[in-house]
Amino acid sequence: MKEIPPVENGYAMIAAVGAITLFATLALLLVSVTRGSVVMAGAERDRAEANAAAEAGLAMALSGLVEAGPTGAWPIDGRVRYETFGPAKLSIRIEDERGKLPINLLEEVQIRRMLERTGLKGERLNVAADSLNDWLDEDDQRRQSGAEREFYVNRGIVPRNGPLVSVAELSAIRGFDQALVARLKPIITLHWSNGPFEPRHASLDAIAVMSSDGEDPVAQIERARELAGQVAAFSFDTEGGLVGRPLLVTVDANLPDGGHAVRKTLVELTSSRVRPYVLREAE
After folding, report:
1. Helices vs. strands in the chain: H and E counts, helices first
2. pLDDT tens digit string along 136-179?
3. What is the distance, to the nearest Å, from the Cα of residue 157 to the centroid of all Cα atoms in its chain?
4. Angle at 48 between CA 42 and CA 51, to 5 degrees
5. Fewer Cβ in 10 A, N or C end of the chain?
């Protein structure tokens, strides 16, 4: 198969994301033009405009990732970038999923460490840690403070005995509640793909959990300084660039008249000029 030159492939990616921008622009214009001729509830109109602006923000992010070639141009460590689209103000954040905790791949000691970082301790920590490990493993042997099938049967729940398929699934596990799941959500991922943990794009909690002894002083200090704006963020120079790396793009669109929309999309860039990116998940 003939290899596609990087520059040519980059142009193809830009053309593809440019098409998204065009469609989002047309959608926004259509909503504006039809205001006087179509009866539309104010809230619905605002929502439509905000959704169009959020789609445009996604296109901007994709374009920003590919326009400088394989290493991308926008930061992927969760820092917010501010843009505008017509009257809409956009907050755009790109997160490297490899800078999060791969919850389905964690060892037992790492799971316990992760839950400790959320503030759990004592018996609550023991229950949650053992129950999560019981949920993930393939057997029906209950750990000392854990839970297996007999615990869940009267609740109408069948334990997975395998990898989680959604973050929301955590709330079904003994020892977990909505508040705990909300604390975990920003630092965990189900979309690890291939490759190592990336501390340069991780939270301090994630770095501590993934470090062999629970602490990595150098990485912790460097990342803390970076997050505080005391040093420039790392440029992305990992071998292989962004291709195949799961990235979560979050766009928060706000309009002057109150319209608001949030678009979260998990994307992976490819090396194909026919299909330059894949949308893995959206909400």
Report:
1. 8, 7
2. 999 999 999 999 999 999 999 999 999 999 999 999 999 999 99
3. 27
4. 140
5. N
